[in-house]
């Protein structure tokens, strides 16, 4: 059962551990975390992230504008390797298309996807990857990692869908203050992630084919599997 982790004002922070796979294994706890942008962190929060959760690598998937609006609270922390690997700045698909199609287009067209998965594979300790709300770019990344080790689609969908519950305060704020925002802003409907997985498999057959497309080596793919399961 997935549980939200409290860390300052950070929303949607959770572990990718605990999911059963099709071959009878379970994804490892304490190695891969996903979240919205970590912010509002006290010294105790930072110590908890680094020393208790064991986070050694933070991967920020946001673009330059988002970094200026809300810096990551774990950037510049001793003992944490902070990396900004933007997944939007070099491919503009428009917010009106946000959803399954846009996730697929990001996966196909953004060169930094390879950099992202190499950074996860080579991290010495636990990894935290995040975007702004921890739903779209983060959700797509989590889905690919879970598909890699054979987590059932129903659990991948559930991992994606629960973001809407965890970011509800943000959604309510956006709807109240920005009525011009697309109706689906902040939502995580199941059809988004299902469409992504369907198009992903049609294009590459599976995650191994996708990582070959990105140019990841067999050793790097093996490290990702070990990180998720071993």
Explained architecture:
The chain has a five-stranded mixed sheet. The protein is of the alpha/beta class and 230 residues long. Helix content is 46%, strand content 9%.
Q: What is the overall pLDDT average?
A: 91
Query: Could you tell me how far the N terminus lies from the C terminus, measured between alpha carbons in angstroms?
Result: 20 Å
Helix content: 40-55%
Helix count, DSSP H or I runs of 4 or more residues: 11
The chain-level structural class is alpha/beta
The count of strands amounts to 5
- Order of strands side by side in the largest beta sheet? 1-2-5-3-4
What characteristic shape results from the CA principal axes? globular
Query: How is the main sheet built?
Result: 5 strands, mixed
Query: What is the element string, with H for helices and E for strands?
Result: EEHEHEHHEHHHHHHH
Task: Give a summary of the structure in a few sentences.
With about 230 residues, the protein is of the alpha/beta class. About 45% of the residues lie in helices and about 10% in strands. The chain has 11 helices and 5 strands.
Question: What is the secondary structure topology, with strand pairs?
Answer:
Blueprint lengths: L13 E2 L16 E4 L7 H10 L2 E6 L3 H6 L11 E4 L15 H10 L2 H10 L4 E5 L6 H12 L4 H9 L1 H4 L1 H10 L12 H15 L2 H8 L3 H11 L2
Parallel strand pairs: 2-5, 3-4, 3-5
Antiparallel strand pairs: 1-2
Helix pairs in contact: 3-9, 4-11, 5-6, 9-10
Please tag this protein with its features.
single chain, 230 residues, alpha/beta, five-stranded mixed sheet, 5 strands
């Amino acid at each position: 059962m997935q549980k939200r982790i409290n860390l300052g004002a950070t929303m949607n922070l959770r572990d990718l551990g605990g999911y059963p796979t099709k071959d009878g294994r379970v994804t490892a706890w304490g190695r891969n975390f996903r979240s919205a942008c970590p912010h509002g962190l006290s010294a105790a929060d930072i110590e908890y992230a680094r020393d208790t959760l064991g986070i050694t690598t933070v991967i920020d998937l946001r673009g330059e504008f988002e970094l200026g609006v809300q810096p990551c609270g774990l950037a510049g922390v001793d003992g944490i390797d902070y990396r900004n690997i933007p997944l939007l700045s070099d491919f503009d698909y428009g917010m009106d298309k946000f959803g399954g199609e846009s996730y697929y287009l990001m996966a196909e067209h953004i060169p930094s996807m390879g950099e992202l998965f190499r950074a996860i594979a080579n991290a010495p300790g636990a990894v935290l990857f995040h975007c702004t709300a921890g739903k779209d770019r983060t959700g797509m990344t989590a889905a690919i990692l879970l598909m890699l080790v054979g987590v059932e689609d129903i659990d991948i969908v559930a991992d994606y869908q629960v973001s809407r519950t965890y970011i509800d305060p943000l959604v309510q704020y956006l709807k109240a203050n920005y009525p011009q925002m697309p109706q689906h802003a902040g939502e995580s409907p199941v059809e988004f992630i299902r469409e992504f997985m369907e198009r992903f498999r049609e294009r590459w057959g599976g995650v191994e084919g996708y990582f070959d497309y990105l140019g990841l080596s067999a050793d790097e793919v093996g490290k990702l599997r070990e990180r998720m399961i071993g």
